[in-house]
Task: inverse folding
């Protein structure tokens, strides 16, 4: 066998360990590196895009603040000038008076390019402006726009003399007679506004511009785009969302460039400020990072894969090949004595030594298999056969030579009550006691199995109905007379016999089960009644249940007469049984006052509610430790949510426990129903207390 490869069945050639180690090292490192690279690139991409969007938003917000201030300031000035009599009347024949007003305003505001007014007589009052020949203000766009509204009109237009694009805010002049005499306007040049916008750029390709509601560009750093419309480039639904205010971001393609843009409306206007950048300016750094990172990942993976493979080959491949040689020698019957392989890998040497121990372990394996087989057919709690074994034996015994074949079904009485009242540990003890009794009552050839939580079944080959009745009677007599924590040890049993092959064992089991449940209807109730009686006697022996004293009889009788005339007997019985839950039987290790104080009412409830005759009083005892203010237990009921009898028992218990001293109600006034306390205090007064 060579190191470089092996042929299996003359067809398939396998890789050597050395090659596999190198390939697995390289692939594993590459995958891990690529995963980390993808995570890093995702973070990098998200960070770049978020930075770009934040930059657009911050820049745009600054521009909106600036333009909003400029628009409102200039609009306010136009409004003031439109009401100035000197401006309205053209300086009363003195144009210089109007120009002086304009000059003073323009000197205080560097954003204003022109302030001027045009009149119905064709005159134009403006400083430092060469009026073209044949110029009439009434023919200009700003004059027409002002005439169409009573407020301040805003528009962008091309200057008649220079062709420069100007943003105008204008308003018509109305004299005291209500006659329109002209228009006053303030213009800002596209260049001056664009310079202010560009002062806030953070990207080389960044551009900010202003549009109207229809997407028409009115201010742009590149005048060739003025009067163009964004609707030629952007998706209509995106623009509608921008206008509606449901989004601020959008992308569009213009002149072959994919642009990312942030839009924000200038408050109280019909204009939008947009700031856009070339998307490639954001994406290209990411692409360059991807290329660099992929190359770095491949390079590092190759280097680390080679180094790791050499280490693994030395540490594992060489010892494994030596181990192969040693195994071949053992297989050929020529094992070496304490061979020194020259390697420090304890695991490989340990594997070699373990091969020689395999034979010794085979015996132990057989023992373990037997133990597993035992567990697969036996119940772990009782050691009896389980349902699986019972099913197998049912098939095996269902043959004519075993007829009549009797099936007995058995169910532990009161197990749910025992589990609820005493806990599952006591319930398990009850199951174990019943199991021992069943074992003693069965014959050697009978198959006894625990097939459920509280269910047992017995298969009795060659057993008649008469024989079955005798065996069941013997089993019943075998149940011990003593109890477990007050719980009677008993079980309900039913049987059916298969005398011939016409009936199925399933039907036989159903018959036995029905008979068992018919008996359980009476036996289970009797077991519960015996259990309750046992605990009542135990509680009496511990002084927890006593006969009512004469004062208790009188006070409880008067309380019932005043508060619940129809429940006098129930009240006295509940008062008498109120401490049954403190019985030591509920704690096999003995009563624990600190632990039982807040649990005895629940023990009493679970115990007494199992019998119909105690069910009404059980609910009262469950809540007699509740307090009027809701600070009691076990539920935390308050006020009249607490049953009436529970409130009466609580007050009477406190009264008699304090030595018939009414002061207990003053110390804990919030614990007791004030109406009941009032009745009790009145009864005390009548008795001369």
Result:
């Amino acid at each position: 066998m060579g190191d470089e490869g092996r042929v299996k069945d003359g067809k398939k050639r396998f890789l050597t360990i050395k090659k596999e180690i190198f390939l697995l090292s390289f692939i594993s490192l590459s995958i891990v590196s690529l995963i980390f690279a993808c995570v890093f690139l995702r973070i990098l991409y998200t960070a770049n895009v978020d930075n770009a969007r934040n930059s657009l938003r911050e820049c745009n917000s600054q521009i909106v603040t600036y333009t909003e201030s400029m628009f409102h300031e200039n609009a306010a000035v136009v409004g003031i000038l439109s009401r100035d009599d000197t401006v309205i009347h053209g300086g009363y024949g003195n144009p210089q008076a109007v120009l002086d007003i304009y000059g003073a305003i323009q000197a205080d505001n560097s954003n204003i390019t022109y302030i001027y007014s045009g009149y119905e007589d064709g005159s134009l009052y403006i400083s430092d402006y060469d009026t073209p020949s044949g110029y009439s203000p009434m023919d200009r766009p700003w004059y027409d726009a002002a005439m169409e509204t009573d407020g301040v009109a805003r528009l962008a237009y091309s200057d008649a003399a220079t062709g420069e694009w100007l943003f105008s805010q204008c308003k018509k002049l109305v004299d005291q007679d209500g006659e329109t005499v002209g228009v006053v306007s303030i213009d800002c040049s596209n260049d001056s506004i664009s310079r202010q916008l560009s002062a806030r750029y953070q990207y080389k390709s960044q551009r900010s511009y202003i549009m109207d509601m229809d997407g028409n560009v009115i201010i742009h750093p590149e005048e060739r785009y003025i009067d163009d419309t964004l609707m030629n480039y952007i998706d209509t639904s995106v623009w509608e969302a921008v206008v509606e205010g449901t989004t601020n971001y959008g992308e569009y393609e213009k002149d072959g460039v994919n642009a990312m843009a942030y839009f924000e409306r200038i408050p109280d206007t019909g204009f939008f400020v947009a700031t856009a950048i070339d998307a490639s300016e954001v994406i290209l750094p990411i692409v360059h990072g991807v290329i660099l990172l992929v190359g770095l990942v491949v390079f590092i993976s190759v280097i680390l894969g080679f180094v790791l493979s050499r280490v693994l080959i030395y540490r594992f491949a060489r010892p494994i090949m030596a181990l192969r040689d040693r195994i071949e020698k053992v297989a050929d019957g020529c094992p070496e004595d304490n061979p020194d392989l020259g390697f420090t890998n304890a695991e490989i040497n340990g594997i070699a030594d373990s091969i020689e121990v395999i034979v010794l372990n085979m015996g132990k394996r057989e023992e373990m298999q037997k133990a597993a087989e035992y567990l697969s057919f036996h119940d772990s709690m009782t050691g009896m056969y389980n349902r699986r074994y019972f099913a197998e034996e049912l098939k095996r015994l269902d043959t004519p030579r075993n007829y009549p074949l009797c099936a007995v079904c058995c169910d532990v009485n009161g197990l749910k009550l025992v589990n609820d009242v005493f806990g599952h540990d006591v319930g398990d003890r009850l199951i174990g006691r019943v199991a021992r009794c069943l074992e003693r009552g069965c014959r050697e050839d009978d198959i006894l199995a625990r097939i459920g939580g509280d269910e047992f079944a017995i298969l009795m080959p060659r057993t008649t109905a008469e024989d079955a009745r005798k065996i069941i009677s013997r089993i019943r007599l075998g149940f011990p007379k003593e109890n477990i924590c007050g719980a009677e040890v008993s079980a309900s049993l039913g049987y059916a016999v298969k005398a011939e092959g016409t009936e199925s064992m399933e039907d036989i089991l159903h018959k036995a089960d029905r008979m068992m449940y018919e008996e359980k209807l009476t036996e289970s109730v009797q077991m519960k009644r015996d259990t309750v009686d046992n605990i009542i006697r135990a509680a009496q022996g511990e002084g927890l249940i006593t006969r009512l004293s004469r004062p208790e009889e009188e006070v409880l009788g008067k309380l019932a007469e005043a508060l619940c005339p129809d429940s006098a007997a129930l009240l006295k019985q509940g008062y008498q049984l109120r401490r049954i839950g403190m019985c030591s039987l509920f704690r096999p290790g003995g009563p624990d006052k600190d632990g039982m104080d807040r649990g005895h009412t629940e023990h009493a409830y679970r115990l007494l509610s199992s019998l119909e005759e105690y069910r009404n009083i059980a609910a009262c005892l469950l809540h007699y430790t509740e307090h009027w203010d809701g600070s009691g237990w076990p539920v935390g009921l308050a006020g009249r949510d607490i049953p009436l009898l529970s409130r009466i028992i609580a007050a009477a218990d406190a009264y008699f426990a304090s030595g018939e001293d009414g002061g207990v109600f003053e110390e804990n006034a919030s614990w007791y129903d004030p109406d009941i306390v009032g009745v009790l205090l009145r009864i005390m007064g009548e008795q001369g207390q």
